[in-house]
Amino acid sequence: MTAEKAQIKLTELAEDLVSLGRRKGADEIEVSILDGYEFSVDVRLGKIENLVEAGSRALGLRVIKGKRTAFASSSDLSRETLERLVENAVKRAALSNPDEFSGLPSLSPQRVDIHSLNLFDPEISKLNSKEKIALALETERIALEDKRITNSHGASFETNEIKAVLANSNGFLQEYKQTICGLSLGLQAGETDNRVEDYWFSTKRHFHELESPEEVARNAVRRTVRQLYPRKIKTQKVPVIFEPMMTSWLLGFLFVCVSGVSIYQKTSFLAGKLGKRIGNSRVNVIDNGIVSGLLGTRPFDAEGVPCQRTVVIDKGILKNYLCNTYAARKLKLKSTGNSTGTGVNPNNFYLEPGEASPEKIISPLEKGLILIRTLGHGLNPVTGDISRGAFGLWVENGEVVYPVSEVTISGNLGEMLNNIEMIGNDLDFRSPVCGPTIQIRELTVAGE
Amino acid sequence: MKSHSSLVFEDHFQISQADLQKILSLSLSRGGDFSEVFLEYKTYNFINMEEDIIKETAESISLGLGVRVLSGEKTGYGYTNDLSFKKIKKAALTAASIASSPSLQTASPLRPSHLQHNFYPVLRSPHKETLAIKISLVKNCYSAAKDLSSKIKKVKVSLVDQTQHVRIINSEGLDIRDSRPLMKLICLAIAEKKNKREAGYSGGGGRVGLEYFAKTLTPEEIGQDAAKEALELLEAVLPPAGEMPVVLAPGHSGVLVHEAVGHLLEADFNRKKTSIFWDKMGKKVASSQVSIYDDPTIPHFRGSYNIDDEGTVPAKTLLIDRGNLAGLLQDRLSARLMNMPFTGHGRRQDYAFIPIPRMSNTYIDRGEHTPEEIILSVKKGFYAHKYQGGQVEDSGKFTFSVSSGYLIQDGKLTVPVKQATLIGTNIDILNKIEMIGSDLEFGLQTGICGKEGQSMPVNDGCPTIKITRMTVGGQN
User: Fold this and answer.
1) What is the DSSP letter of B303?
2) Which of A346, A396, B146, B282 would you label with A239, given CA atoms 20 to 30 Å apart?
3) Of chain A residues 69-128, which have a CB less than 8 A from chain B?
4) pLDDT digits 0-9 by tens, B366-382
């Protein structure tokens, strides 16, 4: 009952502020409210370290007057503060410059069926603190049974329940609820001066889909101990196999480069390439915001544009940039439902899987590197250049022979998209941006 | 400043001193041994200019409090931005539940105290200046970058200013406040020549007022600096790959100290024995020329604070003393568990986070050599100038992404180089520091450090440094 009552209040608050903004002279106004509840527990070496539990709310608004834009946000949801923020925003808008591309999207006749997206798991709120703590403790306990593990960064279990409300002066008013839960574990192996470390995690919207403590622990152990006693290698150019987590990282960089915002800002090497070949015919990349139950799924974006399935790269041809309303207007395209407000976000952004199992990709490799982790920054969307610290497994005649550390990999995303030779069948939607195992024909690996 | 800060809290937190005292007692009701309330009110303003227009401005308010209870090694935390007594009580009980024994401690009566120093006195407080004046700073920076060359095709400038008011009370009777200004003007410039495109970046700021942009670093200098870097990178080559002597430029290269040393001297990683340094206190970990400090008390620096986010008055902390490991960055929890003195390095992003040991302004102290003699000593090597950032793991393995540098040939800086990665293991590299310059400088005053999901403003610095050999990642 009380939850229901609070719900009515937030949509009412959003509508009231939209009306207030119009009365104060805004041509257009958009109000978004997030109402969240978070729980997290960190355990380490069998004991609780941190326990956090809290509810919090935040409100954001955008005002447009005479094609001039102003934003505001607040975690103080008192009427007095919010009314002052609306008034200030209308006044501040006058100090920006008019921008013909500014403004809210018009109200879409389409609506995504929120229920079918399956974003909310009522089971999560039924878990009690003891059960949640036990999951984290159990995960770490299983991992510590392995004698090769010499220290632990600890295990965590966390849950989030978030309600989002969006209203605007074009008549949009919708809300939806979502849940997320996650179990993770970080480990070290080896003695102090020969330490290696890694982690594993599972994050899902539905509790029953979460990997078990055994699975998380087993993966964290396997990923950590396989790096023990690494060698350095000589600087050379070799084929490089990306594990799914590494393909996901590469896709994250690709997302920045196909974002409509980077394109109109000319900060992407893919500007001006729409309709052109940017990769070989094996490469298909999709952004899909409406797959049931996935982490990147949402009914509408931050501007109320319905989410959709967008083909980004089709058999190597760049088909679409991912746009918010502003970038779309600049580029004479349509919004793809990726708005975060001024920026864009991936929904579920992924490289379509191929046929080969990861083993089939590794076994024919005569000599090369399996990339398992990277460290650092070193991504330049303006040029597509990549340069990063890397950890890997050295492969000879189809077999992993030893781990490798203190190397860097460098290449160029544009060239890499043309050099993807094999694509695995192991896409798992572990995160909103993801991909399967891939093999790149050649990258520079710098070592000794 | 003090009176202003007081007013801020009475305006925004309508909770009486007596009720706060009740909250502290309530949070110890389950047997915790320490409790604390962190109250925060933060205002933030943002201006963005690109494509020759002021695209948007933003204003943001953050208001809330967090209640923390310590019980041995355990921390309970609850926070709220609904400031009704009922919700604050709920946060306190959430935090309290970390302990499960009879209540032994009571909260001492609060003793309001005042700061004895102010490391960031400002003449022209950003939140008192008009938006129009701040917009003119942005425009000046923008034009300076754009007008430098017709090859500059795109410029983006943003100005951020914020004022964070904090009040910290705890069960030991502490009741203290701080008001922290923070400004940042940053410029991105993109240069183009025949299908080639490169980006340059610059910025400035700190815990300063608007007078900084008239006296210390002008918007025009920031704009020109970004544009010059972009233009120079148009002529840059890809870096060589392999092991070679590396010279680190002063100032910007402070990111090396931050990543390779600072993080792993944060007390939590040593208490948990995950840091490679945990068993090396007092031992030699670096070349004997190397002394490293973290100093939260440098006036107007981005990483400075009058009190840390646990209310501790901070101190300049010696981390490495002529090559020997000498100190750790402590917060209350680790200091207590390790039985070591507080250093005032417990920081948190905002009221929704637990404080953890963090760096402030970290630097390698100056040495004896002139920068010229250092570069002259290298026959063939790499000079690292500006960075995109770096990352380290507890084993001591780190990387830095160099956005621009130069080749060193026969003791001279020659061809500009772009996009290189430096990689190494910290103790190995610290021992390979062969020469240290007398030219200590600090970075751009725009740095942000991330740890466990919390972003903090930091700064770092170093003189010119020569490393005997280091792996440079490149394509050639």
Assistant:
1) T
2) A346
3) 69-77, 81, 85, 88-89, 92-93, 95-99
4) 999 999 999 999 999 99
Q: How confident is the model at residue A378 (pLDDT cuts 50, 70, 90)?
A: confident
Same domain, A310 and A167: no
Domains in chain B with CATH codes: 2-234 (3.30.2290.10), 242-473 (no CATH)
Q: CA-nearest residue of chain A to B196?
A: A383
Let me know whether A217 and A236 are in one domain.
Answer: no
CA-to-CA distance for A269 and A260, rounded, in angstroms?
A: 12
- Cβ-based neighbour number of residue A88 at 10 Å: 17
pLDDT in tens, A391-433: 999 999 999 999 999 888 989 999 999 999 999 999 999 999 9
Can you point out the beta strands (E) in B51-173? 53-71, 74-80, 111-112, 152-170
Shared domain check, A235 and A197:
no
Cα angle vertex A30, ends A27, A32, to 5°? 165
For strands A196-204 and A173-189, give the pairing: antiparallel
Distance from CA of A318 to the nearest CA of B (A): 19
| For testing contact with chain B, the best of A265, A382, A442 (most B CBs within 10 A) | A382
Enumerate the residues of chain A whose CB falls inside 8 A of the CB of residue B279: 192
Per CB-CB distance under 8 Å, the chain A contacts of B278 are 192
Residues in A 149-178 with any Cβ partner in B closer than 8 A: 151, 153
CB contact (8 A) between residue A446 and residue B241: yes
| Residues A205 and A300 reside in one and the same domain | no
Judge: A70–B394 Cβ closer than 8 Å, yes or no: no
Q: What is the ipTM of this complex?
A: 0.90
Residue A108's domain comprises 2-224
Distance from the A373 Cα atom to the nearest Cα atom in chain B, whole angstroms: 12
- Tell whether B276 lies on the interface with A, counting CB pairs under 8 A: yes
SS3 B4: helix
CA A69 remoteness from chain centre: 28
Q: Structure tokens of B256?
A: 């090396």
d(CA A20, CA B306): 41
- In this prediction, residue A4 has a pLDDT band, given cuts at 50, 70 and 90, of very low
For A245-262, what is each residue's pLDDT tens digit? 999 999 999 999 999 999
When divided into structural domains, chain A yields a total of 2
Nearest CB neighbour to B198, from listed A77, A196, A382? A382
B80 vs A56, A70, A387: nearest CB: A56
pLDDT along chain B (476 residues), means of 10: 54 88 95 96 96 96 96 95 93 92 85 94 92 97 98 96 96 96 97 90 97 96 97 91 94 90 95 94 96 98 98 97 98 96 97 98 97 97 90 84 93 93 90 97 92 96 96 75
| A95: nearest CB among B82, B131, B473 | B131
**Pairing relationship of beta strands B380-392 and A68-74 according to DSSP bridges:** unpaired
Last residue of a domain, one of A174, A208, A224: A224
